[in-house]
Design goal:
The complex is a heterodimer. Chain A is α+β, with helices and mostly antiparallel strands. Chain A has 12 helices and 11 strands. Chain A is elongated, with a radius of gyration of 23 Å. Classes of the chains: A alpha+beta, B mainly alpha.
């Protein structure tokens, strides 16, 4: 209990100390192509008909004119460094110019890199818009390096907090039922897809997100009552359950592909926002909201686990289901509650991942191993471990790109996972007897 | 619908190169999971390391074909030791997570832009199989019963099925040896074996290596059949399919993986043919399904098959329920 409070306190302090921020969009290892895109806006009004050209060391890659909504997108042949040039000659007369007409950016594998040109006097401060974080625009080399680290830490924290929501769900289910759920990634995707459909049908994204989380809870309830509970009653072994969850994962993932197709799509709101300059890094308002909501939800679940009856019952079941049952706790009800909460948390993580990346049917499967890494790192089956592990994994994934190529950052964190298992197999907060 | 075509394709899949590759992968898994109870979820990595070992040795470093095969085997042994050292002392689910993580690490490294000079990036490598096809004794189409194969396919399939038969013989001989009895005893009760003075850790490591080497044969055939290696072919799905095949045929049985692979690919080909036919003739309305959805539906069926098998018949077709390591430890 004391350890829990201090851990949680530490976790929150870390977040507050480091502040919150935005960062580079996440690189995603999967099958699809890279592109660079953005919006051109002057005082909130879209600027159409401006020519934007992308080139790399081999020469010009492509060139487009901004559309009537100010949007532009150019597909690039692969990850690497690109130079994005805005032709100032094509700017309308009422636009004073852009702060910098050339932006150099690094595209990660499978990334849709957002690049925003800042409208304003050339070389001046400009209003709204801005380059994407991660491309330090001015200052000496030293401060650029420092600000890049801050930017990566900030973006890692954002990633870690969202990961934490997903990891907490996985960890709670593992703690109470012993199931290593390989279908957890698909529960994350569920939230993202449902929110996209509702958003596409005309609902504001916030309402869509809330509904998606609620539907996630319903999905979790239905899964437990309709599927996992009967299996537990049959006395199916844990390894059998694990392989069954792989079957569920395949079924759900390709069902998503069947209904959603293989495209990557964006929500209609909050996708591209100008960033606000605050302290050592820039951030978009939506990232603040994402991080704030994640922290609040994680804290709420943590408090609920410690203070409420059902929370205490959950911890009792995690410790020893038989003993919990003997002392009058309705184990089935606790497990169902955990499934509802866990799936709702996963769905929420899905909506947030969908917002900072894009929505596609592989969204959850792509982060599944990172969720596992976070959970194992923190200690399998411990709720607090899942949160701490997620923050470490999130920050590590982003900061490691300073030393290793960003396309290998997921590989880096998985390698760390293996090394940690050699040194401290029970994880940071786990108890030794859990691993034997 | 063109029934003869659909049935022809499906029955051809019974002995096709995919069947060979997945049978070998599943035979390796059978040693690890079926007999020893090790949950190796990274079998794709063993195939990938073998295939890339061969391809990079020949193409990138310009060494002979047989050196490539040796490098592939050596790579697999190194991988098995690297994976085994941290995890074989841990509980089953840790091994599962670490092995699947390792297989993703390896796939990401093989497809990385940074190492494109060595591993060919996401496009992979080709042009390493000339020495193999130079040995081809067939110079014309080969008929086998109702089927006819081109000379290249016939050569790959001949070598592939010889390897499958050899692998089955090896597993059969191993499992009736004293070594095999220890391995099966570890699956049943690790602590009992340890109390008899056996070094459980060492036996598990040997099982992981042998299973990996058998899987490596599948990796070679996979690379040679396509005359190319591509990183995304070695995704976790490969491992999941191999598990489905193993459980379908029956884990802990010598011929289980082979029969499983034949049935698996035959059924997959049959459903694909049927669905495509039904979509084309309009029996399935287009709002429900279009021909490019067939792939997704096929994978859904694999998922359903895997979970139904585990729920209702975990021993598969040939297995013995008492011999399946599905209970938690």
């Amino acid at each position: 209990m004391r350890r829990l409070v201090s851990t949680l306190g530490g976790l929150l302090t870390v977040c507050i100390l480091l502040g919150v921020g935005a960062g580079t969009a996440l690189g995603q290892p999967a099958e699809s192509a890279e592109s660079i895109r953005g919006f051109l806006r002057n005082e909130g009004e879209p600027v159409p008909g401006v020519t934007i050209t992308v080139s790399n060391e081999d020469g010009e890659v492509g060139s487009v004119e901004t559309g009537t909504d100010g949007a532009w997108e150019i597909a690039v042949p692969g990850p690497g460094e690109y130079e994005v040039v805005l032709d100032t000659e094509t700017l309308p007369d009422d636009v004073p110019g852009v702060v910098a007409d050339t932006i150099t950016t690094v595209v990660n594998p499978l990334q849709d890199k957002a690049v925003l040109f800042r409208v304003g006097e050339p070389g001046g401060d400009g209003d709204g818009g801005g380059t994407t974080p991660g491309t330090p625009a001015e200052g000496s080399a030293d401060t650029a390096q420092a600000s890049q680290i801050w930017q990566l830490v900030a973006s890692g924290l954002r990633f870690g907090l969202i990961l934490g929501l997903a990891a907490l769900g996985l960890s709670l289910v593992f703690g109470t039922t012993g199931l290593t759920n390989f279908a957890h990634g698909e529960l994350v995707t569920f939230g993202a897809l449902v929110a996209w459909w509702l958003n596409d049908a005309g609902l504001p994204l916030i309402a869509a997100a809330v509904l998606a989380v609620i539907l996630g809870g319903v999905f979790g309830w239905a899964q437990d009552v309709g599927f996992w509970r009967p299996l537990r009653k049959r006395g199916t072994g844990l390894i059998a359950l694990m392989i069954i969850s792989i079957g569920v994962s395949l079924l759900l993932r390709y069902f998503y592909l069947y209904v959603f197709a293989g495209e990557r799509r964006s929500y209609t709101q909050y996708v591209i926002q100008g960033s606000i300059d605050l302290g050592p890094f820039d951030y978009a308002p939506r990232d603040l909201w994402i991080m704030g909501i994640s922290i609040i939800v994680l804290a709420l679940v943590a408090v609920a686990l410690v203070r409420t009856r059902v929370g205490k019952a959950t911890r009792a079941v995690s410790d020893n289901p038989a003993l919990a049952s003997a002392s009058g706790i309705d184990v089935d009800r606790v497990v169902t509650t955990v499934w509802i909460v866990g799936t709702a948390l996963a769905a929420m993580a899905g909506v947030m991942f969908g917002l900072i990346q894009q929505v596609d049917y592989l969204l959850g499967f792509r982060v599944l191993l990172l969720v596992f890494a976070a959970v194992v790192l923190g200690g399998l089956g411990t709720a607090w471990g899942a949160m701490v592990g997620s923050l470490i994994v999130g920050v590590f994934v982003e900061v490691s790109t300073l030393v290793i190529p960003s396309e290998l950052k997921y590989a880096g964190v998985l390698a760390i996972l293996i090394i940690i298992l050699m040194i401290r197999p029970q994880g940071i907060l786990g108890r030794p007897e859990r691993v034997g | 619908m063109d029934w003869s075509n659909i049935l022809g394709d499906a029955s051809r899949a019974l002995i096709g190169s995919e069947t060979v590759v997945f049978a070998l992968a599943a035979i390796g898994l059978n040693v690890q999971f079926g007999y020893t109870g090790l949950l190796n979820f990274g079998q794709a990595a063993f195939l990938a390391v073998a295939a890339y070992g061969l391809a990079t040795t020949v193409v990138t470093f310009g060494l002979p074909f047989w050196i490539g095969i040796l490098v592939g085997f050596a790579g697999v042994i190194v991988l098995a030791v690297l994976l085994g050292v941290p995890t074989l002392r841990l509980r089953a689910d840790y091994l599962a997570i670490v092995t699947i993580a390792a297989s993703e690490i390896i796939r990401l490294i093989f497809r990385s832009v940074t190492l494109r000079e060595t591993f060919g990036g996401s496009g992979g490598i080709s042009g390493f199989s000339n020495d193999f096809y130079a040995l081809n004794p067939y110079d014309d189409r080969v008929g086998l019963g109702p089927f006819e194969f081109g000379p290249r396919d016939a050569w790959v399939l001949t070598v592939g099925w010889v390897l499958v038969i050899l692998a089955c013989l090896i597993v059969w001989a191993l499992m009736r040896s004293p070594w095999g009895r220890v391995i099966k005893a570890i699956r049943e009760d690790e602590d009992a074996v340890r109390s008899l003075g056996k070094n459980v850790y060492s036996y598990k490591m040997q099982s992981l290596i042998i299973g990996g080497l058998l899987g490596a044969l599948g990796g070679f055939i996979f690379a040679l059949a396509q005359a190319a290696v591509q990183p995304d072919l070695y995704s976790p799905n490969l491992t999941f399919f191999a598990y489905t095949i193993l459980i379908l045929g029956g884990a802990g049985r010598v011929l289980g993986p082979v029969v499983g692979a034949m049935i698996f690919w035959c059924l997959l080909q049959l459903t694909a043919g049927l669905l495509e036919g039904l979509v084309r003739t309009g029996a399935i309305p287009t709002w429900l399904m279009q021909s490019n959805d067939v792939g997704a539906v096929r994978f859904m069926l694999v998922g359903i098959a895997l979970l139904l098998l585990l729920v209702f018949r975990p021993q598969g077709i040939f297995g013995d329920k008492r011999e399946i390591a599905l209970d938690a430890r």
